[in-house]
Fold this protein.
Amino acid sequence: MKWTRIAAVLLASTVLLLAAATLFAQTSGKGAATKKAAPGKSAGAASKAKIARGEYLVTIMGCGDCHTPGTFYGDPDFSRKLSGSEIGWQGPWGVSYARNLTPDLETGIGYWKEQDIVNAIRTGQRPDGSVLLPPMPWPSFSRLTDADAHAIAAYLMSLPTVDHKVPDRVPPGQQASGSIIVFPPPSAWDAPRHPPGAPTDKK
Ligand code: HEC
């Protein structure tokens, strides 16, 4: 009887000890997990680095040449950076205007997801399925790596919004008003062999 009681007490204390140990393990585990997941900070740093990479690429890839007002006149207005241009480009595709790339919901690409931007710059396809016209050089950008294309998209989404509606495209043969760069008819050497948006023998 006595021994049974001692055994019972021992068993009870073992159970208690085990419970305490488990609790401790869980608590310290939790501590470790919190430490690991705490990277709210390093996730922020990662996206900061991604946006900085995007800014670098957008700068060296000359997006602002067409998309930032004033650049063609040697005086880009960075307070309206990448907010589009009202200079029309006229060619066999009609007239196109470099669009507002800031995340303005009404006039920019505020409703586009990061993947929509990646698709547009790499495949020329807008979210509505229409194809980007010249001189938007998306065929050259189709070689962007995933990481670089996403960095560009993240940077564009981080821009301050600018409320600026660029003129609508004008279909071929219709009259456009405003400032327009008119491409002269090409020489045979320069003549396009494919209609705009059609697959090319890209290199
Ligand atoms: C040579 C001029 C030029 C350069 C350089 C250029 N773009 Fe464009 N981009 C255009 C034109 C013009 C359009 C409008 C085409 C159309 O109407 O189909 C456009 C359209 C776009 C669109 C679609 C926006 C919309 O609302 O449909 C995106 C996104 C874009 N450009 C991103 C970029 C990025 C990013 C770069 C640099 C990596 C860049 N562009 C460089 C001329 C240019």
